Input
Amino acid sequence: MMISSICFIFFLILSSSYAAVQDFCVADYTAPPGPAGYSCKNPSDVKVDDFVYSGLGVPGNYSKLNKVRLKAAFVAQFPGLNGLGISLARADMEVGGVVPMHTHRGASEVILVAEGKVIAGFIASDNKAYVKNLKKGDIMVLPRGLLHFQVNAGDTRALVFASFSSDDPGVQNLEKSLFQNDLRTELIAQTTLLDSAEIKKLKGLLGGTN
Output
């Protein structure tokens, strides 16, 4: 009986200490974000809709260049994710569509093929490529910080959902980094071994200068 009473009291103390811990930190978009992310909204102002996001129910804006529609549910769009270390995205790829080479500095990624057939892969730091043909229901993990891609490998539209191990995974697109900038063409040629004429062509296509 004495042991049971002690355990009960310990449980009450432990429960009280947990109650003092903040359960969540819904993003306050009225305050500027800092290096650590968004400030927390006053708990009294938090609503259930802060934890619900309906944006992934429809495709995103269409990229004619890559034949893909991308839609993100990161902390900038979904305040309830703030500080939780998770997020989602949607990619609708038309026939021939591509999610081009890119990296996420802050997250690993898991993709789920919901419709169609997709070739997906990543390049490890030792330059070994890991590539797989995926079908509906397949998932693949893309490790943090590594270049990766997806290509529609079928003759119908492909739909892919992606989850990330960060509420703000960040993204750096390889083609935009190289050709949508004001870095001089000759420097890009010297540092990539690409032909200057092709670099200028791609800069013109993607909006780069110099």
Notes: The chain has four helices and eleven strands.
